[in-house]
Amino acid sequence: MIFKDREEAGELLAQALKQVVDPSKRPIILAIPRGGIPVAYKIATALNIPMSVIVVRKLGLPWNEEAGFGAIDPDGTPYFDPVVLNYLTEEDIKRVIQKELIELRERERKFAPRGYPDLRGRQVIIVDDGLATGFTAIAAAGYAKKKGASEVIVAVPVCPADAKQRIAPYVDKFICYYPVSSPNFAVGMFYQDFHQLSDEEALSYLKKAEEKGLLEP
C-alpha cells in the first residue's frame, strides 16, 4: 500500500481510531512535529477532537546521527536502546543529550509557545507519519504517562511488522494502519509525496486547527 500523502494517511488512520476514541476520557491528539502534524490535523478534524504537539528528539549516534540509540522527552528524560548503549561512553551519551535538548527547546518555542496541555486523566493519542525504531513515540508516550494520562495510544499510518512488540510495554494501545514485513523499512517508501515539511507548512496546519477550535492549549 502507498499513501498519497500525509493528509490521506491521516484520513485513513482516523477511520481506524473511530472505535478506540472515548469521548468520556476527554481525548486529545499529540502530534510529533513536523511530519505528524498534518496526519494529526486530519484525525482531529475527522473525529472532532482537540490536538496539540509534543516535541521529542531522536538521539543520534555520534558517528552517524541518522542512526538513533534512543530519544528524549520534553523533560529531558532519555529512553534508550539498551543494545546500542553498550557501544557508547557516558560522555558520548551526555554530549548528545545536551545537544538535542537545546534543539528540543528551540522547537518548543516554535511549535508549542504556550506550553503543553494538561493531560491528567485524559486519553492521549500520539501521532506521527510513521514509525521506524519507535523511540520518539516511546519518549512521547513516557511523557504522557508521567503527566497523568489515563490511557496512552500511539497511532501511525505505517510501521514495521515487529514494531508492536517494541512499543507495547510503553503504551495502552498501539495502532498501525499498515504494518509492513520488509527487511529494509523506511517510512518514506510508503508515501507518494513524503517531502520534508518546512516549519511554516507544519505551523499552517496548527493555525487551521486553531481556527476550527481544535488546538490546545
Structural features:
single chain; about 220 residues; alpha/beta; Rossmann fold; Ybab, Chain: A; 2 domains; five-stranded parallel beta sheet; three-stranded antiparallel beta sheet; 7 helices
How is this structure best described in words?
It is a single chain. With 217 residues, the protein is an alpha/beta fold. It has two domains: 6-55 and 121-183, 3-Layer(aba) Sandwich (Rossmann fold); 58-109, Ybab, Chain: A, CATH 3.30.1310.20. Helix content is 37%, strand content 22%. The strands form two sheets. A five-stranded parallel sheet has the order 2-1-6-7-8. Strands 3-4-5 form a three-stranded antiparallel sheet. Strand 7 (151-160), helix 6 and strand 8 form a beta-alpha-beta unit. The longest helix has 22 residues, at 90-111. The protein starts with 5 loop residues before the first helix and ends in a 6-residue tail after the last helix.
